[in-house]
Amino acid sequence: MIQILIIIFLVLLVICMSLYIKYLLNELLFVSDNIEELKSTLEDFKGHLEGLYGMELYYGDETMKSLLDHSKLVRDFIERFNDIYSLTELTEEEAEEEFEDEEEDSENSRET
């Protein structure tokens, strides 16, 4: 009797842990996507600041220069997190392998 209760408890524990792991993976994927979007927005902001800094009116302005330097520091800081949490990006090698696999599949489908 006690063995059956232990087995039931362990099965329930495995189910709960599986659901929790799924929840954590979804949260991690959400963070990864948002960091990528934040990085993109920051790149646009940096480009805008560089454009302003290059204008004749602001050229050589120390405030604009320090703002530009600060945006570069923030971008580098976010880049470190992007490297850690980048789950949705394929590395160059993975992308090439996927492309080659797709080419082989399309060739095989043409032959049949």
Protein model, in words:
By secondary structure, this protein is mainly alpha-helical. The protein has one domain. Helices cover 87% and strands 0% of the residues. It contains 3 helices and no strands. Helix 1 (2-54) runs antiparallel to helix 2 (62-85).
**Helical content class:** over 70%
Measured between the Cα atoms of the first and last residue, the distance is 59 Å
- Report the order of strands and helices: HHH
Major sheet, described briefly? none
Tell me the number of structural domains: 1
What percent strand? Answer: under 5%
Number of strands: 0
- Integer average pLDDT: 78
Quick structural overview:
With 112 residues, the protein is mostly helical. It has helices at 2-54, 62-85, 92-111.
Record the SSE blueprint.
Layout: H1 2-54, H2 62-85, H3 92-111
Helix pairs in contact: 1-2
Highlighted features:
112 residues, single chain, mainly alpha, elongated
